[in-house]
């Protein structure tokens, strides 16, 4: 049976843990709101880029760009966004699990004999991805890319992927990340970055309903080729921020669960401590009374 001293020590330890998890939850919540604020600030830029593309696609011009060119898949790159730190529940586990499912069905998704290069972003995901052993799959890491990378680093990373696509080293680039919906809901998403889907652009153009007449100078195709890299960059920035917001949201929920569990355990320990203390007091009283009777 636990002694009062042992119980008191455990109560102090659990109480300290509860305070720590509550503080971590507050910090993660503040970071999450920071990233959701960034998403809101990114929205006008993305809307402007999309509006320009919508005006272009509303014309009868047949656009030609190497960034929308489909070709036979021989080399595919998959950028996997995770986290640098732990204590975020099953955030990284779910991403790696989905990646393994994707690799197991790679022949069905991409075709037979396709070589896949993984570009993990986030120390935890890098560690997990390096353990994946599969034929035709290799891992490439970049020292400057992490979940704390600056906008310039992300631009550099995006430019590297775009150049390797244009040079034919990669025939397709996909993104695997958590899309932020709310604090309690993040959706695991797998989408194509390069080549840019002309059909997806057309659908977004139809949704924006940009029907105002425009005059393009020098010509629509030149403007299209100038704006398309900006679209790719804005998409990558959006995905990076979505992943960061999702990571903090997952950490908020994990810390909330840990705090609730600590609170429940603290109540149980306090109840046990009070029972043991009452039992000890009763025993002492009985000993005192017994001594008086003997005299």
Listing every helix as H and every strand as E from the N terminus to the C terminus, the arrangement reads HEHHEHEHEEHH
The rounded distance between the terminal residues' Cα atoms is 33 Å
How many strands? 5
Q: Structural class given helices, strands, pairing?
A: alpha/beta
Percentage beta strand: 5-15%
The CATH homologous superfamily: ATP synthase, F1 complex, gamma subunit
Oligomer: single chain
Regions with little confidence, pLDDT below 50 for 5+ residues: none
CATH class: Alpha Beta
Using only CA atoms, what is the Rg? Answer: 28 Å
Query: In the residues, how many domains can be counted?
Result: 1
Shape: elongated
| Spatial arrangement of strands, main beta sheet | 3-2-1-4-5
CATH topology: Pyruvate Kinase, Chain: A, domain 1
The main pleated sheet reads as: 5 strands, mixed
Task: Write up this protein.
The protein has 295 residues and is of the alpha/beta class. It has one domain: ATP synthase, F1 complex, gamma subunit (Pyruvate Kinase, Chain: A, domain 1). 62% of the residues lie in helices and 13% in strands. A five-stranded mixed β-sheet has the order 3-2-1-4-5. Strand 4 (172-182) and strand 5 form a beta hairpin. Helix 1 (4-57) packs across helix 6 (198-208). The longest helix is centred in the C-terminal third of the chain and has 75 residues, at 220-294. The two termini are 33 Å apart.
């Amino acid at each position: 049976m636990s002694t009062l001293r042992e119980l008191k020590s455990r109560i102090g330890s659990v109480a300290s843990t509860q305070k720590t998890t509550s503080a971590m939850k507050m910090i993660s919540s503040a970071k999450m709101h920071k990233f959701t604020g960034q998403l809101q600030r990114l929205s006008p830029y993305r809307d402007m880029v999309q509006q320009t593309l919508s005006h272009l696609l509303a014309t009868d011009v047949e656009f030609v760009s190497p960034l929308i060119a489909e070709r036979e898949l021989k080399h595919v790159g998959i950028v996997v966004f995770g986290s640098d730190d732990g204590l975020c529940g099953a955030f990284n586990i779910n991403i790696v699990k989905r990646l393994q499912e994707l690799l197991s069905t790679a022949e069905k998704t991409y075709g037979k004999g396709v070589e896949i290069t993984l570009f993990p972003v986030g120390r935890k995901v890098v560690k997990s991805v390096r353990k994946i052993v599969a034929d035709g799959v290799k891992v490439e890491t970049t020292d400057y890319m992490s979940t704390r990378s600056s906008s310039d680093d992300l631009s550099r990373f995006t430019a590297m992927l775009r150049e390797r696509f244009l040079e034919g080293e990669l025939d397709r680039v996909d993104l695997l990340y958590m899309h932020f919906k709310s604090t309690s809901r993040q959706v695991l998403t797998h989408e194509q970055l390069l080549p840019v889907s002309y059909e997806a652009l057309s659908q977004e153009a139809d949704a924006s309903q940009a029907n105002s007449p425009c005059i393009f100078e020098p010509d629509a195709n030149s403007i299209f080729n100038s704006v398309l890299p900006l679209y790719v960059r804005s998409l990558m920035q959006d995905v990076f921020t979505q992943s960061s917001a999702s990571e903090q949201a997952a950490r908020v929920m994990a810390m909330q669960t840990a705090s609730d569990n600590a609170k429940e355990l603290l109540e149980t320990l306090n109840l046990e401590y009070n029972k043991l203390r009452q039992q000890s007091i009763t025993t002492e009283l009985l000993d005192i009374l017994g001594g008086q009777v003997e005299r």
